[in-house]
Amino acid sequence: MAITGLILIGFLLMHMYGNLKMFLGAESFDHYAEWLKGDILYPLIPKGWFIWLFRAFMVAAIVLHIYSAVTLWSRAVAANPTAYAAKKKLAQTYSARTMRWGGVILAGLLIFHLAQFTVKAALVNGPASASSYDMVIGEFSVWWMVLVYALWIVTVCMHVRHGLWSAFATLGANTSAKARAVLNGCAWAIALLLYIGFMIMPVAVLFGWIRS
User: Fold this and answer.
1) 181 vs 5: CA distance, rounded Å
2) CA 184, CA 98: separation in Å to the nearest integer?
3) Where are the alpha helices (DSSP H) in 39-142?
């Protein structure tokens, strides 16, 4: 759970970096999109292979992450099968209490996001034949699409904040009160960085600061 979670957070940071290339213009972003699809590690591997190997790796990480979550939840239920009439909640953050449902929501919205920008079967504004740059411009020119994306990224960052803390604690970094404070600060910093980094581009498109 911890290792696959950290892999997914690493992917989010790379994805955020790629999205920010929209600020450099159509040529830069489209070149980046084509580079991802064809030229990475060429000629070590044939053109176009890397993106499929990377997708397979990420799908495996997501499946293992979900499997780990279900397994841990099943063990927790088995360890405490009695349903008490009253429960006393331990001190927890909102993101910690909603990790499971947050994960379900993330999975559903991830499928839509892939259908929209990867498969291009769920575009809400513009033809699938448009360039990567123009496709992003078209989708985020729709106000409600930016709102949906903003809510999704909130859920992502809540999940990341608690997940990052839990992952490093699981791997043995939670060794003292000072270490806990550092871990918590890092978790918040990365969550905020991801939110700002992912949202600044759609907002810029919506307000016309990035345009075709």
Assistant:
1) 20
2) 18
3) 49-79, 94-97, 99-117, 132-140
Question: How far apart are the C-alpha atoms of 58 and 114, rounded to whole Å?
Answer: 13
CA distances to 29, 55, 115, 169 from 58, rounded to whole Å, are 22, 5, 16, 23
User: Does residue 127 have a cis peptide bond before it, meaning omega lies within 30 degrees of 0?
Assistant: no
Domain spans, the chain: 2-206
Residue with tokens 């600020």: 23
How far is the C-alpha of 198 from the C-alpha of 202, rounded, in Å? 8
Residue 160 CA from chain centroid, whole number: 8
pLDDT in tens, 184-209: 999 999 999 999 999 999 999 999 99
CA quadruple 185, 69, 176, 7: dihedral sign: negative
- Contact between 164 and 190 under an 8 Å Cβ cutoff? The reply is yes
Are 2 and 68 in contact by the 8 Å Cβ rule? The answer is no
Q: Give the integer Cα–Cα distance in Å for 98 and 162.
A: 10
- pLDDT digit string (tens) for 127-175? 888 899 999 999 999 999 999 999 999 999 999 998 898 898 888 888 8
